[in-house]
Amino acid sequence: MKNKNVEKLVTSAIMIALATVLSMLKIWELPMGGSITLFSMLPICVIGYKYGVKHGLYVGFVYGLFQLILGVSGLKGLSLATVIGAIFLDYLIAFSVLGFSGLFRNNKKMSLSLSLALGCGLAGFLRFLCHFISGYLLWAIWAEKVGWAAIVYSFQYNISYMGIETVLTVIAAGIIGAAIPKNLLINNK
Q1: What is the CA 39 to chain-centroid distance, rounded?
Q2: d(Cα 127, Cα 116) in Å, to the nearest integer?
Q3: Quick count: other Cβ atoms within 10 Å of Cβ 153?
Q4: How far apart are CA 58 and CA 55, in angstroms?
């Protein structure tokens, strides 16, 4: 049992480190936050899938802390309420929900590839929702500057990167699910 816990901890730490490095490899970056990366959500989603939603949420939260540390400079000069809202919606909750990638892991009616891809799709959608809500509640001032309704602006801004990031992650997850043996992607202990 102790060896399994050590394996779980080490695997999670490696995947958090990998996701952090991949998050720095940006294909496209928006001017006010958000970017399309080289599959940075995938390692966290794989952990959620391998060990289940509960552990995935925990690992996503830790990853969110790392992303917050790396992105804290973007919060300078903002009101306290906006900073607190952004910490929770744009970092802690947004990255924690990647753990929901494990929701379909025990579905016997789906292939491993499909269940992993669907889990990643759900996780990406939930992360998009966090950023969308944040954009609507916290960043509406940018919508006013361009003359758009806040809800439309937040949707457009966040889907422009999260949509692509999610699609790329789902495609990669489908490929990984088809290529890697089941015993490496699911830990039922």
Answers
A1: 10
A2: 16
A3: 21
A4: 5
Domain boundaries, given as residue ranges, for the chain: 2-185
Confirm if 153 and 143 have CB atoms less than 8 A apart.
yes
At 188, the pLDDT band (50, 70, 90 cuts) reads low
In this structure, how many other beta carbons lie within 10 angstroms of the beta carbon of residue 109?
A: 7
Tell me, what's the pLDDT at 189? 57
Q: Does domain 2-185 have CATH number 1.20.59.20?
A: no
Alpha carbon distances (Å) from 8 to 4, 15, 48: 6, 11, 11
Contact between 20 and 71 (Cβ < 8 Å):
no
DSSP code of 95? Answer: H
> What are the residues facing 26 on neighbouring strands?
37
Query: What mean pLDDT do residues 34-44 have?
Result: 96
The DSSP line for 9-46 is HHHHHHHHHHHHHHHTSEEEE-TTS-EEESSTTHHHHH
